[in-house]
Write a structure and sequence with these properties.
The chain is mainly α and about 170 residues long. It is built from 5 helices and no strands. About 75% of the residues lie in helices and about 0% in strands.
Length: about 170
């Protein structure tokens, strides 16, 4: 039985490690967005995807462990939470499990906050880009910009626009 709790502690510690790396990458992502470093951002996203694959693997293992805890906790695996496991945990393992749980929750909370900041930064950048497109471009009305002789029939202001239309 102690092996089951040890396996859970090791698994949660591994998840915490991967999520800690994701937090670091999210900070880097924020800096890349602010500095408009698109190539850096692309590399960060690729690295994150590898970490997310690892998180999925660890989550599958955690669900498997929860199925093993089902009989001990006398609760369906789908409803089991770490606090339920802590309640049935042997006294010698309880402090370790509680500490890992608290640390994991703190890392996940930080990740959620960073995700929100990064989302807001990206939205702000997109709003700015849309503003620039609106400012530099014009909505096309579908009319032909050339007259019957082939000369440009647009006004000087219309010709000086950098972008013809929003895509």
């Amino acid at each position: 039985m102690n092996d089951l709790f040890t396996a859970l502690c090791n698994l949660l510690a591994a998840e915490k490690g991967v999520y800690t790396q994701l937090v670091s990458l999210s900070r880097d992502k924020k800096d890349a967005v602010v500095a408009n470093k698109i190539e850096d951002l692309d590399n960060i996203v690729r690295t994150e995807q590898g970490h997310l694959v690892r998180i999925n693997e660890l989550e599958r293992e955690r669900r498997r462990l929860m199925e093993e805890f089902e009989a001990l906790a006398q609760k369906p695996a789908a409803e089991l939470q770490i606090k339920d496991i802590i309640e049935i945990c042997p006294e010698d393992k309880r402090p370790e499990l509680e500490a890992i749980h608290v640390e994991l929750v703190a890392v996940l909370d930080e990740q959620v906050k960073l995700n929100d900041v990064n989302r807001q930064l990206v939205e702000s950048r997109l709003e700015y880009i849309n503003f620039l497109i609106d400012t530099m471009g014009e909505e096309t009305d579908g009319s032909n910009p050339y007259n019957s002789t082939g000369a440009d029939a647009r006004t000087r202001e219309q010709r000086s626009r950098i972008i013809d239309q929003r895509v």
